[in-house]
Specification:
Elements: E1 7-11, H1 14-17, H2 21-25, E2 32-35, H3 38-42, E3 64-70, E4 89-93, H4 99-102, H5 105-118, E5 144-148, E6 153-155, E7 169-175, E8 188-189, E9 197-199, E10 208-217, E11 224-233, H6 239-246, E12 252-253, E13 264-271, E14 275-283, E15 288-297, E16 300-307, E17 314-322, E18 325-333
Parallel strand pairs: 5-11
Antiparallel strand pairs: 1-2, 3-4, 6-9, 7-10, 8-9, 10-11, 12-13, 13-16, 14-15, 14-17, 17-18
The protein binds calcium ion.
The site of calcium ion has 9 residues, from loops.
Length: about 325
């Protein structure tokens, strides 16, 4: 991942963050704290806004170009040291630069403040916690993908969304133009309601539209959750094509996120066909720690979460087996 321009990732007013416990008290005594590396790991933050494997989608960690570029140079202090490695290829920043990060500032700044609150009380009710965003019945944080014909409409629903503190929720749906491939406006009816309707433009055939749900609670500080729906616009949408968009083409086990983690992490995997699935976690000695799945599952995309609060720090492995096809990946628990 390229070194990003130094950006103001945590823009916190002195009057509030410095009064939030011992972590706030040692925070730099200024309104804008410059921070350049934090956005890199914010790509992995499981807030529902983006797929961490797809850095071009854009989220709290900013947005990268969809294709790798040759010869992206490092910071000025690296002058001349990159050239011997030519040609090398990296995902570079988009032309929007740091504004691809700062557009989400209310979300990550308030999250940062809430974490300070979590660190000073063991009473759950004394701090705010993130709402949980559900879209069209999907309770995971995965990016959803659907197909629709030009000129049609797509009904979405955030019914079932909730807040663990009982806060009231506000809904905002918007067209996130930058990562998609349709450069005009997309009208969304009832865009502050639970059930909006996306009007797919009649000239958008072949395009990809990214629709974001931003769910915000009424707590203090107000916290956000997101979901993303990618609409693939196709004039030839048929039942078969819709099905092929939803059903993965290959067996895939994604890297867990966050990673390293403490104590919770999430796994996503994709089954191209109905399979008998086991999903097991092993420690570094090869001892089985837990079985998360052991059943027949239909083709589709799956999401699992694991809370490792009862386990010691260290390297673990997670293993997906689908009808004998096996894939294993490594992860790190840091307590
Ligand atoms: Ca809340």
């Amino acid at each position: 991942m390229p070194k990003k321009k130094v950006v103001s990732c945590v823009s916190i007013e002195e009057t509030h963050v410095q009064s939030h416990g011992p972590l706030g008290a040692v925070y730099p005594d200024r309104k804008w704290a410059t921070e350049g590396d934090t956005p890199s790991f914010l790509h992995l933050f499981p807030n529902g806004l983006n797929n961490p494997d797809e850095v071009w989608q854009g989220g709290w960690g900013g947005r990268f170009n969809r294709e790798k570029k040759a010869g992206i140079r490092g910071m000025s202090c690296m002058s001349g040291e990159d050239a011997p490695y030519d040609p090398y290829y990296m995902y570079g920043n988009t032309s929007a630069g740091a504004s691809d990060i700062s557009r989400w500032s209310n979300g990550y700044n308030n999250d940062f403040q809430a974490r300070m609150d979590w660190s000073i009380t063991s009473d759950y009710s004394e701090a705010n916690h993130h709402p949980i965003a559900v879209v069209n019945g999907d309770v995971t944080k995965q990016v959803l993908e659907v197909s629709a014909a030009p000129g049609s409409s797509v009904d979405l629903s955030a019914a079932g969304s909730s807040d663990p503190d009982g806060d009231s929720l506000s809904y905002r749906w918007f067209y996130y133009r930058d990562p998609g491939t349709y450069n005009k406006t997309v009208r969304i009816d009832d865009r502050t309601n639970i059930t909006p309707t996306v009007n797919v433009p009649s000239d958008a055939d072949g395009s990809e539209l990214h629709i974001i749900l931003e769910l915000r609670d009424s707590g203090d500080p107000s916290l956000y959750a997101y979901r993303r729906v990618i609409i693939h616009v196709s004039d030839n949408t048929s039942i078969e094509e819709l099905k092929s968009d939803i059903i993965p083409k290959t067996l895939k086990l994604h890297q867990n996120y966050p990673n390293p983690f403490n104590p919770e992490t999430a796994f996503n995997y994709e089954l191209p066909y109905n399979s008998f699935v086991t999903f097991k976690i092993y420690d570094v000695l090869g001892q089985q720690v837990i079985t998360l799945v052991d059943e027949k599952q239909p083709a589709g995309k799956y999401h699992l979460q694991w809370n490792a609060s009862d386990f010691p720090s260290g390297i673990y492995f997670y293993n997906l087996d689908a009808d004998g096809f096996t894939e294993m990946k490594k992860m790190l628990l840091i307590r």
